[in-house]
Write a structure and sequence with these properties.
Layout: H1 2-18, H2 20-51, H3 58-80, H4 86-105, H5 107-113, H6 131-162, H7 168-194
Helix pairs in contact: 2-6, 2-7, 3-6, 4-6
Length: 196
Amino acid sequence: LIGKTKKEISKGFTFIASTKEVYLSILLFTSTPFLLGILVALGPGFFERVLKISAADLSYIIMAPAGAGLIFGAVLLGKWGARFSRRILVSRAIILAGILFFVFALSEKIADLLGNPLPLIKKPVPFTEFLGLSGVLIFISFLFGLALVTIMVISMSTLQKVTPNKIRGRIMGVLNMTAFGLTIVPNNGLFLIFKI
């Protein structure tokens, strides 16, 4: 029984390694919870120490807009996604996510441009005190959700399309195991490194 199980698992991994669309789809799909994990782990400290916005407002500025972006993106993909090349959609979504991470890192500079010099503020305040900066962050979060759902939906649909029915369960098992395993890395890894 153990030998048969090992053989079946080996077949699944061989198929993944030999099929470009499959391993790229798994890589892209599992990268999204990893990125979200980094955002969730770093978010509260970044908000309070750098942006001087209360971490309690994280759900209003990051989570809710990102969730809205996920829903809106799923609806758009369902309605018009088939009209465009999957490769182009995914590549654009990856580029957009990278740009948004970069812009998010520049939030302090954006605050300065909007007339809210953050170093002058001693303790975190509600996000309503910085409506300009908060609006920018909400928009970034919405677009980030849009980019992530594009990557996830197209990766999953590609995976299901190219995987034979006979081994689909094994491939999905690898996908879920990898995705859930990677969500642990940002939270625990960042804590051990930076004591966040």
